[in-house]
Structures are given as C-alpha cells and as structure tokens.
Design goal:
Blueprint lengths: L30 H13 L1 H5 L9 H31 L4 H20 L3 H6 L3 H8 L8 H9 L7 H9 L6 H13 L4 E4 L2 E4 L5 H5 L4 H16 L2 H21 L5 H6 L6 H12 L2 H15 L4 E2 L17 H11 L5 H12 L3 E2 L11 E3 L7 E3 L7 H23 L9 H22 L3 H37 L6 H16 L3 E2 L21 H19 L2 H12 L6 H8 L7 H20 L1
Parallel strand pairs: 3-7, 4-6
Antiparallel strand pairs: 1-2, 5-6
C-alpha cells in the first residue's frame, strides 16, 4: 500500500492492513480493558471529593490529595488518548464517536469533581503554602504547585470553577462540528488528470497542488474551495462561535484579552507575539521576491495561488515508499546519537505509526504522546510527496520529545508546551534537509531540496505568522464590540492574502475562504509557535551540526526538560533566546540566502 490503492479509491478502515496501522495495545489490550478502566475512573470520583476542605491541613494531607489526583490523571489521560486515537483513525465510525463522547462526559465529571482543588490550594495562606513547599514530601509536586499558584489572580470560586468544568463537553461543539463537516461529511469528488480520475480529499489536495500540469492544479483548487464555498455560512458561524468562546473564557477569568489568556500559561510576553508579526511584516519583500522568482521559473504571466507549491525543478520525479523514507530520516538524525536513532527507528517501524489515508481518517498528521503507551503518530503518507518524508522526521521529533520527557519527569510535570514542541519537530526537518543536500547528486536535486526548504520556511514562518495575525484581528474585532460574519471574515483574510503574497500573485474568487478551513484556529493563538519554533530550530540545528558533544547534550537536555521550566527558559538553556526578535530575523536572513542559492541554480 502506498500513495493510492486499487482503482485509486480511498479505502475503508477495515481494508487497511494491520501492519500499516498503529498498535494501541500499549494503551489498552482490547475494548474490554478500556471499558474496565473507564469504570475504574468513574469509581475514583468519590475519592476526589473526600479531600475537599482538607488540603491546607498539612503537607502530608496535600501530598495525599495530589497523589490521588495523579492516579486519576494518568488513568484519565490514558483513556482519553485511546479514545482520541480511535476517533482520529476513523471519525465516521459511530463506535469511535460514542467511545469518545463517553470519555468526554466522564472527563467532564472528573473535572467538575476536582474543581474545588485549585481555589482551595490558592486559598492556603502564603506563609503556610511556602512552608509546605519546603518539605521533602512535596518534592515531586513543587513545580506543578508553583505553576498553579501563578494562576491565583485567574482562579474563580469553587462554585464558579464547577460551573465552568461542567461546560467542558459543550464547549467542544464548534470544534467537533467543524471536524465532522470537513473531515467526514464534505465530499470533494474526483479530479480529472492525465493519469485518470483521482479522488480529491483534504489529504490528497496537497498532491494535486504539486502536480506538474497547471490545469490539474487549477481544477483541484477550484473544486476544493468550491465545496467550502457551499458551506461558507456554516463555517463562518462555527468559527465565530469559537472566537466568542475564547473571549468569554478570558473575560470570566480576568484576563485583559483572549490572546493574553492564551499566552499566560507559557509565561510568554505578548511582545514575543507582536515581535514575530512585526519582524515578518517588515521582511515581506523577501517573500515577494521569491514569488517573482517562482513566476519567472514557471514561465507564467502571473502567479496564481495554485502555483505556489509545485516544485520549481521540472520533470524531477521524487518518490519514496514509507520504508525508504524511514531509511532517509534515521541517518539524517545521527547527530542526535545512537539512543535517539535506534528508539525512533523501532517506533516508526514497530507500531507507533498509522501510515496511510482511509475513509474518515483525520487529515494531516500529528504526534500524540502520553505518560503511558507509545508516542503515537498519525500520518496520511503519500509516496510521491517529498513533504511527507519531512513529516515523518517532524512528527518523529515530537514523539522523541515525548519519549525523553516521560522518562525524565514525573507525571505531574512531564508535559511540555507547544512552544517547545515545535522546536523538537522542525529541528528534525532541518537535519533531514542538511542530510539530503549533502547527498544530492545533481544541481537539479540541490535546487529541488533548497526549494523544499524555502517552501517549508514559507509554510512555517511566513504562513503561520499570517494565520497568527488573522487570529489577532478576528479576536480584537469581537473584543472591541464588532461581529464576525462570513463577509467580514473573508474581507480580513483577503487583505492578509494580498499583504503576504504581494501584488503580483493573483487571488481566486474563493481564495479568501481559506481562513474558514484552518483547523488550528479552533485552538486559538498557538499557530505563532510554529513560526517561533522553526526560528529556534534553525539556530539550534546549526549549533548541533557545527558543534560537538556539548551542543548535542544541551539539546537532549532540552528534550528531557518536559514541563520542568517555562519554554523561554528551556530554550535559553539550549542556546537560543526567543525573548527578542533576533532569531526571527536570522531565520528570514537564512531564507533570503536560500532564495539566492535557488536563483543561481535555476
């Protein structure tokens, strides 16, 4: 099984061979074990209530309560991970929908039962809690408690916290409806190509956009966005509801804005976000120059949005089976040491990965690490998409980050932030790019790979910054009393498309609908971390490639840090300071140099 199945049909889940699926037995051996554990979690509910009113009595009592919640948390995460992964592999299966819904319902009850704990701990007098924290008995909980105490200005009363906890399941509605509509219900049909009729889906769309036939790209683009156009009002309403929910949550917890609320947990100043947008904004001439180079290379009168992903090196066919892709990725990561590479190879070939597309499967890719089980990876791998080889390296970076973090931290603070996660993933892509360039046997291949690096920086720094700017604009509009309608959303997004792509790139009538199809927008104000993460990874990968054992160990120490410190602190220890715009500017300067190299090779 590879890019396409027999007769180019997207297979049903049951038609996919087991060896191409992830092995979830490390989480639960079977459905019966999951059901038993769900009942076990429900049985732990009364115990949560038993600590109410006593957490401030002594360090010992606080430790007992926290240890109990650790037990609850590990089981809760394990159950949720399994339910989420099963839903992701086939969202059209009613059994997966039901399982996930049942988990969410119980998780909401757990959260509601525990809602008294944060305000109760916050209410412990400062002198008393400081005395508790100094005792050895709370050593494993100190970091998580310090983080909790930082939230004191934003913790509500016990009754209010319980009411918010009871909303957890209902608050998933916009996101779940968006996913059901775009991943399951929308039928994108088939596209006529010289190779025959090919199925168009959220996953295969990327393959069409790199097709050498411009007419195929245009048909796929028009057909793809035509489907979204027919649901534009529904999509706008769902996104508007998500934005309103973000603002409601921020206001009820006394944050000055939804963005401030989103950045607070990572202790990231809003200036970091603003620095990113401003630094990228003043360097858009570099991006526009690249698009002009692309226009000349492709030989078109005017570049259009369906032209911006096709490889610039004509007639260069690149295809790798999944197994071949793994054999490219692992040697590329050799600078990270034998343990890293051996562990990742075993995972990529031994049950961590769900490899190929099937009906109802979530589009794109992700890594889902948890304290128990393996750090699983969902892919929709295509043999003929080089980006998918990089995706293996990318998601492998996430999974190895989880692997190291789990083995170096207790459950209470093993979880790292997305800010840090995006460094671990794009770092691997940088090493893979350097490895492939070193093996390139022709100028055409070098141009192809440099073009890939350029495209990745565009996708990860420029595009994600555009998304971040859109999120800030939409939330600010509502926060200032405005409304989000399908027309206002399309207008704002259209302005950003013109700003980032420049005056020489022609927009299609439906191009501004792209802002309504981005799943990341349903988890507001985190896409900026992709951009900052890539800037950090460019700096750190150079340190490791050009350095020695010390640089490698510093990077591995970063991977092992988990949630033991805040992201700007952990990255500073690894060797990069993201509190100022210099790494962003350096990454864009690197982009300019890549474009110059590409122009010389064109």
């Amino acid at each position: 099984m590879g890019t396409n199945t027999e007769e180019n049909a997207i297979p049903q889940r049951g038609e996919v061979e087991d060896r191409f699926k992830w092995n979830l037995s490390r989480l639960f051996a079977d459905e019966g074990e999951w059901e038993k554990s769900l009942a076990e979690l429900e049985g732990l509910l009364p115990g949560i209530e038993s600590f109410k009113g006593s957490l401030g009595q002594s360090a010992e009592r606080l430790r007992s309560g926290l240890d109990y919640m650790t037990r609850v948390g590990i089981l809760d995460e394990r159950l949720g991970s399994y339910a989420h992964l099963r839903l992701s592999e086939d969202a059209g299966d009613s059994r997966n929908q039901e399982r996930f819904a049942r988990y969410l319902a119980l998780a909401a009850r757990v959260e509601a039962a525990a809602s008294y704990q944060a305000p109760e701990i916050q209410a412990i007098p400062e002198a008393v809690i400081e005395g508790f924290l100094a005792e050895e008995i709370l050593r494993e909980h100190v970091i998580s408690l310090r983080k909790l105490l930082r939230f004191k200005p934003h913790i509500l009363s016990e009754r209010e916290e319980r009411l918010l906890a009871l909303q957890t399941e209902a608050n998933q509605t916009a996101s779940k409806a968006f996913s059901a509509l775009t991943d399951v219900d929308l039928d994108f049909g088939q596209v006529e190509t010289p190779e025959g009729m090919q199925p168009l889906s959220q996953s295969t769309y990327s393959s069409f956009l790199i097709h050498p036939d411009r007419a195929v790209r245009q048909r796929a683009y028009s057909q793809f966005y035509g489907r979204f156009a027919s649901h534009r009002n529904t999509l706008a309403s769902l996104y508007s509801g998500s934005v309103q929910l973000d603002i409601y949550r921020a206001r009820i917890r006394n944050y000055p804005s939804a963005r401030a609320a989103a950045l607070f947990p990572d202790r990231v100043p809003e200036e970091v976000y603003d620095n990113l947008v401003a630094t990228v904004g003043k360097n858009l001439d570099a991006l526009h120059a690249y698009y002009e180079l692309r226009r000349r290379t492709l030989g078109v009168d005017r570049l259009r949005l369906f032209d911006v992903y096709v490889p610039l090196v004509a007639n260069l066919k690149v295809s790798h089976t999944y197994e071949e892709a793994v054999e490219l990725v692992i040697p590329a990561l050799a600078p990270l040491g034998e343990e890293y590479c051996a562990t990742l190879r075993s995972g990529l070939t031994g049950g961590w990965v769900d490899r190929y597309e099937n009906k109802g499967k979530r589009s794109g890719a992700f890594s889902a690490g948890s304290f128990t089980g393996d750090p699983y990876i969902l892919l929709n791998y295509k043999d003929d998409v080089l980006r998918d080889v990089f995706t293996i390296a990318h998601e492998g970076g996430h999974s190895m980050h989880s692997w190291y973090s789990v083995r170096s931290n207790p459950f209470q603070h093993y979880g790292y932030t997305i800010f840090e996660a995006e460094v671990a993933s794009t770092f691997n892509e940088e090493l893979l790019a350097a490895y492939l360039l070193g093996r390139a046997e022709s100028d055409a291949m070098r141009a192809y790979l440099i073009g890939k690096q350029v495209d990745d920086i565009i996708a990860t720094i420029f595009r994600q910054t555009m998304f971040a700017e859109f999120e800030q604009l939409t939330h600010a509009r509502v926060e200032s009393g405005g409304a989000l309608t399908v027309d206002s959303l399309r207008s704002e997004y259209g302005k950003l498309l013109r700003k980032y792509f420049g005056p020489e790139v022609a927009l299609e009538e439906t191009s501004d609908l792209e802002g309504l199809r981005i799943p990341h927008f349903y988890r507001a104000f985190y896409v900026y971390k992709y951009a900052t993460g890539m800037a950090a990874s460019i700096a750190l990968s150079r340190r490791v490639l050009e350095g020695g054992e010390g640089e490698r160990e510093a990077y591995l120490t970063f991977l092992k840090s988990g949630g033991s410190c805040y992201p700007l602190e952990s990255l500073a220890l690894a060797g990069v300071d993201m509190a100022n715009p210099e790494p962003i500017q350096a990454a864009i300067d690197h982009f300019r140099e890549l474009v110059r190299q590409l122009e010389r090779l064109s």
